[in-house]
Structures are given as C-alpha cells and as structure tokens.
Design a protein that fits this description.
Elements: E1 7-12, H1 19-28, E2 32-36, H2 42-59, E3 64-68, E4 83-86, E5 91-95, E6 107-109, H3 114-118, E7 124-127, E8 132-139, E9 143-150, E10 152-155, E11 160-162, H4 174-185, E12 190-193, H5 199-211, E13 217-222, H6 231-240, E14 243-247, H7 248-255, H8 257-273, E15 277-281, H9 296-307, E16 312-315, H10 317-320, H11 325-339, H12 359-373, E17 377-383, H13 388-393, E18 402-406, H14 409-414, E19 421-425, H15 436-446, E20 455-461, E21 470-477
Parallel strand pairs: 1-2, 1-16, 2-3, 3-12, 5-6, 12-13, 13-14, 14-15, 15-16, 17-18, 17-20, 18-19
Antiparallel strand pairs: 4-10, 5-9, 7-8, 7-11, 8-9, 20-21
Helix pairs in contact: 1-2, 1-11, 5-6, 7-8, 9-11
The structure holds 6-O-phosphono-alpha-D-glucopyranose.
6-O-phosphono-alpha-D-glucopyranose (G6P) binds next to helix 13 and strand 20.
Length: 479
C-alpha cells in the first residue's frame, strides 16, 4: 500500500508523556505533537518537548510540534461542592460579583464582566459544550438571570458559549502572552490561536510570536460563529494565517451540530484554494478514550475528512488522557491510508480555470499537473527554504509523494503537517550548481523511494537560499 499522505496531530497529556508512550505514538504514525496550553505546567510541556526531540532524532523522523493557546474561553467559576445538578425550568444566575469558589444550584460566579454586556433576554447560553442550556431572562449590571432549558450536571470551570456567537472577548489573554514566550523557548513549529474573530487577531499573535523570537507558523482555530458567518469573514481569517483548524468543539456548539459538517467542508476547500494548511479537529475518535476500537461513525468521520482533502486529522482527549492513545493513532493512520486508496483523492480539478499570481505558485501547480498526468513519475522533489513551494504543491490532490528538500531543521519539521509531503535533509550549496539536480535525485534513490528508470519532477530557483525564487521545473530520469 502507498505511504499515508494525511498527517496525524496528537495531543500529549498525562496518558502520553512517558518516553515509552511517546516512542509508541511516533511509531504508530504521529506526525505533529500538540501541546495544549490550557492544561499542564510549563515544566510538563518542557519535559514533553525534550523527550519528543530526543526520540524523533533517534528514530530519524521529522515531527512538528504545535503549541495551542488557551485563548479567551469564557468559563463559569467553581461550586462549593464541585458539581451541581440543574433541573429544567428552574432559575439559575451567572454573576460577576459572586465569590469564585462558592457556587450552588442557584448561582455561580463568572470571571468575565462583558458577558453581561453581550447578553440579552431570549439568548441561549450553552454550557459544557451544550450539555446544559440556559435561556437569558433578564440582565442586571453584574448578573445574568436565566431559566434552565436543558438540565443536567454542571461542574467547575465549564465553558460558556452563546448560540449564534457574538460574545466579544479579546482574542489574546495575559496567559496566552506568557504561553507564546514558552512556545518560542520550546521552539515549537506551529502556534494555534484560539477564538480569533478577525485577521487582525492573527496578525497580533504573529507579531507577538516574532517578538518572542520564534519563526513558528500561525494556525487560526475556526471556532466562532462569526468566523464562518460569510465567506468574506472566513477568507479574511484564512488569509491572515498560515493554516486553519476546524475546531469543531466550540464551533459545533455555536453554529449547531447540523450545520457543522457542511461548514467543515467549506473551510477545508477555502483554505486549500488560498494555499493554506487545514487541520480537522475534535472528537474524531472520542469513543476511543474508553474503548480500543472506534465506532463506525468515527471511522466515517475520519475517512470523510481525508476525502475532503484535509492536511491533518487531530486527536485530543483520545491521546492526552484516554486509555488507548497508541491504538487511536494507529486506527487513524489505518483509516486515512484506506480512504486514500479511493481514486477521488488523486484526481484534481484544483483551481482549473483560475489564474495564478506568482511565479513560484505557477511552477508548483504546473509540477503537480505534470506529475499527475505524465505516467512513470514516481516522486516530486522541491528544493525549498521555508516549505512554501511544497505547501502549494500539496494543495492539489495527487498520489505522487512530494519531497521537501531543505537544509533547515525548522522547515523539515514544519512540513510534517503538509499532506503528502515528506522531508529529506539536503543542502544545495554543498554542490556545484550544475550537479545539484543529479545529487538530489541520487539522494532520493539512496532513500529507496525511486529506482532506475523512474521519472522524477524537480523544482528550484536560479539561486540558493532565496525563498519565493522557484522558477524552474525539470523532468528527470533516475539512472
Ligand atoms: C531553495 C532553492 C532555491 C529556491 C528556494 C525556494 O533555497 O535552492 O532555488 O528558490 O528553495 O524556497 P521557498 O521557501 O520559496 O519554497
């Protein structure tokens, strides 16, 4: 069977932080490790990164690390007895002034003054990812009075969303700023920004990441109803970022589960058309937190995201705190690879009929057209500084592997997120200009990917170390 193209992001947590379990996750197919800054201490994250780097170096794999910022998730405070049970029809108050540890079945604190400003009678508030639903009856200066529509248990620090979105928390908190500095210290490859509303939220995050000295690429988590309200809002967020995550937890609560699947497909398509990455996330293998096998619906969910041509599928609780982290990665890898056998994943009408704006983009897309149509092409080699050229290539559906040839470890790791792209360390400056292409093909042959007589497509520019300079497409045979 062909090498798997869809990448796997797995969240590290208490269930996956020993050297043994990290090694097993890598062997099972992890491509990108996610650090969830909503949980765990800085030292726990430091230790995980140290183990990841050591083990991946030993195994010779180029895995990426993504730091995921907590963002301004709006939460209730805590209950005197940790949990209460709310009953349909009863009154329940959210209060800015109520003591934080003293909630009960009538009232609980919130650490978020503007909720009061953003709520109006008739609004529906969804707590704990929609498990509990409250209808706003009246709003006072420091409190929102509600009636319980869907009751059930409610425990400490559960999240609050409003149906339809529209809660105006700023996108980066003080904790996020600290975590950006931690992400830079840990040399993560991606920083994911939670709850962005506008392109400027992403630009601000990017500025802070650069100020902290990190070249990490910025992923916008699409999880607010406003972000998908129309194509212009969605495209502006995509444009400002290097990639997006379909963050289905909060997004599903705000837009309603019935709209979510269609919106997921739209986000994936829009991201790819703008040459950006896309990750599909949340509850993909949820039942595997407690069970060694996925349900049929979960298999279908992962396979559908793969057929939609997502770059990566992501695991959260399954690997962070579940009972079967390795099995979850292995199941995802198996399902992705199976779905990729379907011919629709290798045939492309990507941007046919549209014009291109850049030379490197034109070469990248033309290479894929050539690779998909010229029989005998076994591999595409892209000489790259930042990974941008293979990224553009991998926006197109294809069964031909794309090799990211770069001397830079940052780029080798970053490319672990790109669908169908695999890194091979290679420094063109070590060779005479006329010998670079043959050296690159020899390197590919040595890694066992191609053999004598195969065709290979190679792209590069006129000079080395110039990002954006790709202007050449070569078709070569292996000898
Ligand atoms: C390498 C090649 C250059 C090419 C560049 C593209 O440095 O030697 O000839 O121009 O990659 O890098 P990019 O970051 O645009 O993919």
């Amino acid at each position: 069977m062909k090498k798997r193209r869809t990448k796997i992001v797995a969240t590290l947590g208490p269930a996956s932080s020993s050297p043994e379990s990290i090694e097993q996750l890598l062997l099972a197919g992890l491509d990108v490790a996610r650090l969830n800054f909503s949980h765990g201490t800085a030292d726990e994250h430091r230790q995980r990164v140290r183990m990841l780097r050591e083990i991946s170096a030993r195994l010779g794999s180029h895995i990426a690390i993504m730091g995921d910022l907590q963002g301004p998730k709006i939460r209730i405070a805590r209950f005197r007895d940790v949990q209460v049970i709310l009953h349909r029809g009863q009154a329940f108050t959210l209060s800015n002034t109520h003591p934080a540890n003293d909630g009960d079945e009538h009232i609980v604190g919130i650490d978020y003054p503007s909720l009061v400003r953003d709520c109006h009678p008739g609004d529906e508030l969804l707590l704990d990812d929609g498990r509990v639903v409250l209808e706003v009856e009246s709003v006072e200066e420091h409190a929102v009075h509600t009636r319980v529509i869907v009751g059930g248990p409610l425990s400490n620090n559960k999240g609050i969303n409003r149906r339809g979105g529209g809660i105006s928390a700023p996108s980066l908190t003080d904790k996020d700023r600290d975590d950006i500095r931690l992400a830079a210290e840990l040399e993560v490859d991606y920083v994911a920004v939670s709850f962005p509303r506008y392109g400027r939220d992403i630009e601000q995050a990017r500025r802070l990441v650069r100020e902290a000295g990190s070249p990490a690429w910025i992923i916008a988590k699409i999880e607010r109803a406003e972000a998908v309200a129309d194509d212009a809002a969605l495209d502006a967020l995509i444009q400002a970022s290097d990639g997006v995550m379909v963050a289905r937890g909060d997004l599903g609560v705000e837009v309603g589960d019935a709209r979510l699947v269609g919106i997921q497909k739209r986000i994936i398509q829009h991201a790819r058309h703008q040459n950006k990455l896309v990750i599909t996330a949340t509850q993909m293998m949820e039942s595997m937190i407690a069970s060694p096998l996925p349900t049929r619906a979960e298999v279908s969910d992962v396979a559908n995201a793969v057929l939609d041509y997502t770059d990566a599928v992501m695991l959260s609780g399954e690997t962070a705190s579940g009972k079967y982290p390795v099995e979850a990665v292995a199941a995802m890898a198996r399902i992705a690879q199976g779905a990729e056998q379907e011919p629709m994943t290798t045939q492309s009408h990507h941007r046919v009929g549209l014009s291109f704006s850049r030379c490197d983009e034109t070469i990248a897309l033309a290479s894929m057209y050539a690779a998909n149509h010229f029989q005998g092409v076994k591999a595409i080699v892209s000489l790259t500084e930042t990974g941008n050229t293979p990224l553009i290539m991998s926006r197109i559906r294809s069964g031909i592997p794309i090799f990211c040839f770069t001397p830079h470890p940052t780029t080798q790791r970053r490319a672990a997120m790109f669908r169908g792209v695999y890194s091979i360390p290679f420094d063109p400056t070590l060779y005479e200009p006329a010998a670079v292409s043959t050296e690159a093909i020899a390197r590919l042959k040595a890694s066992g990917v191609v053999q004598r007589g195969d065709w290979v497509i190679l792209t590069k520019g006129d000079s080395y170390h110039s990002t954006g300079g790709t202007n050449t497409l070569k078709i070569l045979t292996v000898d």
